[in-house]
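Q: I'm a student working through a structural biology exercise. My instructor gave each of us a protein and asked us to get a predicted structure, then write a short paragraph describing it. Mine is Cytochrome bc1 complex Rieske iron-sulfur subunit. I'm not confident about reading structure output yet, so if you can add a plain explanation after the tokens, that would really help. Here is the sequence I was given:
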Amino acid sequence: MQQAPPQTAAQPSTPAKQPVSQGTTGAEPKPPAPAALAKVADIPAGGGVILKEQSLVLTKDASGKVCAFSAICTHQGCVVTDVGDGTINCPCHGSKFDASTGERVAGPAKSPLPAVAVEQRDGAIFQA
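A: Happy to help. First, here is the predicted structure for Cytochrome bc1 complex Rieske iron-sulfur subunit. I'll explain a few features afterward.
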């Protein structure tokens, strides 16, 4: 009969090496601050700017109040391209929306542009 090899005492396992962090204080790092959508000064009074990447339109009335709306027309989903004469204008079928409320004022769209919550601080506009 064959004998089983002699049992040896289990070797203590060595702990995995932990990465050494340098210069940490133990506090979690802060996430980066959100980027401003636009500077208030860059939005013309009585007009607006279209932010295609965010699908937003920012408007500013004569008193300096900034509003934000979806830049997607509620008629067939085209992106609005112009703000002028108090309206946000869609180039596809001629829908027009009130620049201060987003309400439909002309064209085939039946619904207003949805409002988007924004806040103004330090001379810039941020999504809320």
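A: Here are two points you could use in your paragraph. The CA atoms of residues 8 and 14 lie 17 Å apart. The longest strand covers residues 47-51. It's a good idea to check both against the output above yourself.
Q: Great, thank you!
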